[in-house]
Write a structure and sequence with these properties.
This protein is of the alpha/beta class and 128 residues long. It has 5 helices and 5 strands; from the N terminus they run βαβαβαβαβα. It has a 5-stranded parallel β-sheet, with helices on both faces. α2 runs parallel beside α3 and α3 runs parallel beside α4. The longest helix is centred in the C-terminal third of the chain and has 16 residues. The model has no long low-confidence stretch (mean pLDDT 91).
């Protein structure tokens, strides 16, 4: 479950969590770009959507939910794999994520092995 230099765009409004994720992902072989503001992330993604292999997105953010942000990202690039993270997912959120094509939901607190597995699955799902 080692990365192969794929580029992951990380969004979490909690900067400590976002940078911790970035550090962990770099240690297991991924490149990362970290954002703590959803508009900043959208701007970066709009300018170069093909520079990223996956988006790791927090569900609970102040200005926009991870699901709503995911929908905007998928409008820009429909094949971008997205992994949503949250401390809790309601049945409705799970259903809405699946309807958007998001297959990977990670429950916080994140364990590195779970994160690596979710990323591997997301990349495998993209190839299908």
């Amino acid at each position: 479950m080692q990365g192969n230099d794929e580029h992951i765009l990380i969004i979490d409004d909690d900067s400590e969590t976002a940078f911790m994720m970035g550090t962990l992902l770099k240690k297991i072989g991924y490149k990362t770009t970290i954002k703590t503001n959803s508009q900043d992330l959208l701007d970066v993604f709009k300018n170069s959507p093909n520079d990223f292999d996956l988006v790791l997105c927090d569900q609970s953010m102040p200005s926009i939910t991870g699901l709503a942000l995911s929908e905007k990202l998928l409008e820009i690039r429909s094949d971008i794999p997205i992994v949503l993270m949250s401390g809790y997912f309601s049945e409705e959120q799970v259903k809405n994520a699946k309807n958007l094509g998001i297959k990977n939901l990670l429950k916080k607190p994140i364990i590195l092995t779970d994160l690596a597995l979710a990323l591997s699955q997301a990349f495998l799902n993209k190839k299908e």
